[in-house]
Fold this sequence. Notes:
Elements: E1 3-8, E2 21-25, E3 34-39, E4 42-48, H1 79-91, H2 96-102, H3 112-122, H4 140-151, E5 156-160, H5 166-180, E6 185-189, H6 196-207, E7 212-215, H7 221-232, E8 238-241, E9 253-258, H8 276-287, E10 290-295, H9 300-307, E11 312-316, E12 327-332, H10 344-356, E13 359-363, E14 372-375, E15 392-394, E16 399-401, E17 408-410, E18 423-426, H11 430-440, E19 454-457, H12 467-476, E20 482-485, E21 498-503, H13 517-529, H14 536-539, E22 543-548, H15 554-560, H16 564-577, E23 585-593, H17 596-608, E24 619-621, E25 625-632, E26 635-644, H18 647-663, E27 669-676
Parallel strand pairs: 5-10, 5-11, 6-8, 6-9, 7-8, 9-10, 12-22, 13-20, 13-21, 19-20, 21-22
Antiparallel strand pairs: 1-2, 1-4, 3-4, 14-18, 15-16, 16-17, 23-26, 23-27, 24-26, 25-26
Helix pairs in contact: 1-2, 1-8, 3-7, 4-5
Bound molecules: adenosine-5'-diphosphate and zinc ion (ZN) (2 copies).
One zinc ion (ZN) binds near residues 384 and 407.
Amino acid sequence: xxxxLHVVVxxxxxxxxxxxxxxxGEAPLAPGSLVRVPLGRREVCGVVWDPPPGNGTPxxxxxxxxxxxxxxxxxxxxxxxxxxxxxAAGYYQRSLGEVALAALPxxxxxxxxxxxxxxxxxxAAPAAAAPRHVPPAPSDEQAQALAAIxxxxxxxxxxxxxxxxxxxxxxxAVQALLARDPQAQALVLVxxxxxxxxxxxxxxxxxxxxxxxxxxxxxxxxQRLKGWIAAHLGRARIVLGTRMAVFxxxxxxxxxxxxxxxxxxYKQQEGARYSARDLAVYRGHAEGVKVVLGxxxxxxxSWQACDRGRYRCLEMPARIGxxxxxTVRLVNMNHQPRGTLFSPPLLAAIGQRIARGEQSLVxxxxxxxxxxxxxxxxDWKSECSHCSAFRVxxxxxxxxxxxxxxxxxxxxRACPQCGNVDVAPLGRGTERLEEQLVELLAQARRPDxxxxxxxxxxxxxxxxxxxxxxQLAQVxxxxxxxxxxxxxxxxxxxxxRITLVAAxxxxxxxxxxxxxxxxxxxxxxxxxAGRAGRDAARSAASEMWVQTFSPEHPMFAALKKHDxxxxxxxxxxxxxxxxxxxxxxxxxxxxxxxxxxIAQAFLQSAADxxxxxxxxxxxxIYAPVPMTVxxxxxxxxxxLLLESGSRPALQAFLAAWQxxxxxxxxxxxxxxxxxxxxxxx
Length: 681
Ligand code: ADP
Ligand code: ZN
Ligand code: ZN
């Protein structure tokens, strides 16, 4: 007779019933232990879980299969970790097994993990952090923020202008933590992989390279495993990573930092659609650990949490070294000839920068050469045959590429519909901007008499491994005079020589049907402005240029004054009147099917099953609608919006609804998923 063990295994997304599974072990195992167990014909990695209340339904031991190997070299995952995983699975309506196993590095399934752990455990005491170089004395604002972080429970919203020294506050907060407890661990989250090298360098410079590990999806599996184990064994003092790192195993966690907390990248957009920012706040609360969220343009959710006294707002309005924020200049594009890409005053301003040896950054949120290729004789456009979207024209390799499904073809020599050879690009992307700038700036000269150098940085130019680092290094070294890019270049980077930033065509977001579009645009423009004038000596003449057809839009008035609070207040007022988040809570049910009718029929049955369920009295169920990009890779997509003034009511409803959805059988339905607190509707 063996021991009854409850084990969480990788289960399909929605099979929440019957979790965890029961197995027989030779000896009792602590919850959190890692094991290998048979599942069907496979052997999978699993996590021993806490017994269900009352020990669950009685099981017949004779029916149970035995546990395989125990990953004995690895200490069990902590109760705090298990609680986080269980919360995330419940809140985001996914199975425990899916969330738990996705939170572990893929190679943990192999037994080499144990050997690696043993090797790491045998090394020099765990890394001790020692400040390696003398950090700058904190400014008054930084000192005040740090004092509040030391004295109060938080969570904190560090609302600091771009260049106000937020990162320095994180470094000092970590330093204070390690001074109190040399064995403590700090978790630092950043929104994008391309921001990790810069931040990692700053932490390593301060605390020593062996104290910091990174965790993000850009790492190889062995690298991830090593970083994960170093964190799990309590050897790494600082774990720095993207959203997935919120699930890192950190036995001595003492502080959580979420940098650029407003960034939409913190929301996972597939599988369990969790918000790493929100889970960080939950984790901090559950583990009694302080949480610092930082941003120059906080999410309206976090801003409102400060209004309500749930978060403590710490303000740092001034740039370090008395540097000035850039002057904002709007160009009214209604007064420019049709089709103008760069207005003459903007070009002149860029030319001046080149002559002075300063850099300019020009951004446009669209990669490729042109979003559409069109025939001038008939109505042919470069539609994707698999999606309800146009394929983007990439001139560099003369391809038409679908940015939704990846379908790629050579550009046709002539119109495929009428044979006309005059097919032309419509609209503009970063490739086209780069090409035009090279032409327009052909006469511009640097102080050394050399022609101006224009470079482009976007998902295409940085696809190859190492390309991003190389391009960033070139910008930092001053080898580039004008950098053209997508929003990738507007975030977080500490470029020292940029004194001009230009948004050439940001208007689309002003007329979007997405109610979050103005919030996203405002923060994008503020972040972009934050790249200019970061060197105080050059900041006085720094400028942010915006070309727009709607210069009278109220958002630009706030942007001119760098006045986020004014913008936030105006937006929150609109949201309150319209009962939109953060004054209401939302969830989406998304469905994918062979036809739009089938997808919508499933959603309609789901809606019909709603009334009478727990919480339904407080939940509004809207009608099914096609998604904005309705067809992707020949799959039709539709969605249904749920809204409630009460988060608990919405949660109760979703929990009751989920098993009903599992029972719905609709022929031709491919899959469905629930998205709680969706960012894009
Ligand atoms: P943010 O994260 O708010 O954009 P950073 O922390 O990157 O700002 O700081 C901007 C620049 O100012 C960095 O180069 C940083 O090294 C420098 N800096 C930050 N705090 C101080 C300080 N107290 N004294 C001198 N320089 C500082
Ligand atoms: Zn044609
Ligand atoms: Zn496509």
